[in-house]
Amino acid sequence: MSKQRLYHLCARDAWRAAASQGRYEGSALDRSDGFIHCSTLEQVEATANRFFAGRTDLVLLTINPARIDGDLRWEAAASRDGELFPHVYGVLPLEAVLSAETWQPDRDGLFRLSVTDDTPL
Q1: For the chain, what is the radius of gyration of the CA atoms?
Q2: Which superkingdom heads the taxonomic lineage of this protein's source (predicted)?
Q3: Quick check: 24 and 91 in contact, CB under 8 A?
Q4: How would you classify the pairing of strands 71-77 and 83-89?
Q5: Residue 1 has pLDDT above 60, yes or no
Q6: In this structure, is the dihedral angle defined by the CA atoms of residues 33, 38, 42 and 47, taken in order, positive or negative?
Q7: pLDDT digits (tens, 9 = 90+) for 61-107
Q8: In this structure, how many other beta carbons lie within 10 angstroms of the beta carbon of residue 5?
Q9: pTM exceeding 0.85
């Protein structure tokens, strides 16, 4: 089992809904693909800029993989030259979320990560 933190990006409204429901079921894309897309610390900035550039409603979830109820799989992403990404099959319990922080892009519309703590859990 992975001991590194995982990261997921979601819309602020989706996170608020999850907080009231006690679990996060993923975005429409996640549900369509059958899993919740996650990233490592090294991957999350590129993911944000590729799929969410300019958005001002993002929340960055920091996840403890040991608290995930579903199946966690590391799978190749065709759009990223086969790079392995963590995918959560199932819902994400709120207990797995270590933090949920609003993440705003810089003036140029790009996201720059200020998180540097990726010490093992």
Answers
A1: 13
A2: Bacteria
A3: yes
A4: antiparallel
A5: no
A6: positive
A7: 999 999 998 899 999 987 778 899 999 999 999 999 999 999 999 99
A8: 22
A9: yes
The SS3 assignment for 112 reads: coil
Q: Could you tell me how many residues make up the chain? A: 121
Q: How far apart are CA 12 and CA 87, in angstroms?
A: 21
What letter represents residue 47's amino acid?
A: T
pLDDT at 79: 77
Going along the chain from its start, the domains and CATH numbers come out as 6-103 (3.20.170.20)
4 SS3 class: coil
Tokens of 111: 């996201």
- In the block, tokens 């992975």 appear at 2
58: which strand partners?
11, 103
Percent of the chain exceeding pLDDT 90 equals 80
Helix, strand, coil percent values for the chain (each to nearest 5): 30, 35, 35
Cα distances (Å, whole numbers) of residue 41 to 20, 52, 70: 27, 16, 21
Rounded Cα gap, residues 70 and 105, in angstroms: 31
